[in-house]
Amino acid sequence: MPNTKRPRPLRSTACVLAVTLGATALAACGSGDDSTSGSGPVSLTYWSWAPGMDKVVALWNKGPGKKAQITVTVKKQASGDTLVTKILTAHQAKKAPDLVQAEYQALPTLVSNDALADISKEVGDARSKFADGVWQQTTLGTDAVYAVPQDIGPMMFYYRADLFKKYKLTVPTTWEQFAETARKLKKASPGTDLTTFSANDSGLFAGLAQQAGAKWWTTSGDKWKVAIDDAATQKVATFWGGLVKEGVIDNQPMYTPSWNKALNTGKQIAWVSAVWAPGTLTTAAPDTQGKWAMAPLPQWSPSENVTGSWGGSSTAVTTDSKHRTAAAKFAAWLNTDGDALNALAKESGIYPASTSAQLSGAFAEPPAYFSNQADFYTRAAAIAKTTAPSAWGPNVNVAYATFNDAFGAAAKDRSDFVAALHSMQDATVADLEKQGFGVSR
């Protein structure tokens, strides 16, 4: 969950001007001369929360890094807003590490604080390794490149294949069919829910809005434009709020003992999630292994084929690094080299952003939990290519925290989700203005 007590970012005057001048000026933010050509001996520090990252980096230090005389040391960190705050604090003192693992939605905040370097000249040729919608998240709509994509979370639909058969349900391909499936199940088995609407992980709702075509933060001239309550997102809020009010899906949060039990016992028989769901299901519903199947996310129109993204991170080089070329070289290796990506999958459990890695190595076979679905990763790779572009802003933490509060109350009371969405919009705009950003109304 977002840290609602995160300190207000401390931004340099140069980058405040760059952000308020819009995307073109933003591209210049974080650029600068490297003090090295990438040759060693060089020692780099990398802040990361991914488990087993030290083992992955060891491959670099023993191989390409040794040859280039570039040594990387991993320092394990907390994730989310905690890490963003730590990076900004370190950058204020000009002591940020050379490299950081950063979630995609955190990049605008870090860039607006002049904490990340533009590494387009060093890693620009890596673009072909990634889907356009993924690469776009590291450029912020500019010609600059502020990070190399590492892992992604394309969204998909998970369901109990055995119980769908028992209740004579058809896997929905549209959201309209999804709603009808929920109603049919409730009629056949009143004590069973298709799924739940959860307000304790804002990334899920953001991904659903992204699939519907929402772009919550964009630049308009010299100002930020916030469109969290746009027509696309209102459509999503109205849809889920309607199902909750109708009582055909549950309204309880995910990741609780009650939610785990519902999945494990068949009280809930589906979950809108992302490619990393097998790991969660292994813990939440261990007795149902081999009974689930995965399908593409339902669409708003039968003619569409698009998904949202829930999670994912990148590897960025900070403006404090005195060895940006060397750091960028490592970032590119980490997220495009076959051996590195296989190690990341094995040690860190990531689903790679690199398209070439999504069907090789650790992903040649399905997850053990989905051993019954041999084409799991083949389908996942196809779905990943349909990921819609995202649009993040410099105060995602405020929007997410407000979502948790406003939608949490609305879900509990089965009240108006669109009103909760307006609260989210108003709080986000007010915070931007308080920070001194120009906001287009």
Q: What would your notes on this structure say?
A:
The chain is α/β, with parallel strands linked by helices. The protein has 2 domains: 13-152 and 310-366, Periplasmic binding protein-like II (D-Maltodextrin-Binding Protein, domain 2); 154-308 and 392-440, Periplasmic binding protein-like II (D-Maltodextrin-Binding Protein, domain 2), CATH 3.40.190.10. The protein is built from 19 helices and 10 strands. The strands form 2 sheets. Strands 1, 2, 3, 4, 7, 8 and 9 form a 7-stranded mixed beta sheet that branches. It has a 3-stranded mixed beta sheet with strand order 5-6-10, with helices on one face. A hairpin with a 2-residue loop joins β5 and β6 (223-226). α3 (53-62) packs antiparallel against α16 and α18 runs antiparallel to α19. The longest helix has 19 residues, at 417-435. It is globular, with a radius of gyration of 22 Å. The model is unreliable at 1-28 (pLDDT under 50).
Can you give me a brief rundown of this structure?
This protein has 441 residues and is an alpha/beta fold. It folds into 2 domains: 13-152 and 310-366, D-Maltodextrin-Binding Protein, domain 2 (3-Layer(aba) Sandwich); 154-308 and 392-440, Periplasmic binding protein-like II (D-Maltodextrin-Binding Protein, domain 2), CATH 3.40.190. It has helices at 13-20, 23-26, 53-62, 64-68, 80-92, 107-112, 120-123, 132-135, 161-166, 175-188, 202-211, 231-246, 257-265, 277-284, 324-336, 338-348, 376-384, 396-413, 417-435, and strands at 42-48, 70-76, 99-103, 148-160, 217-220, 223-226, 270-274, 292-296, 309-317, 439-440.
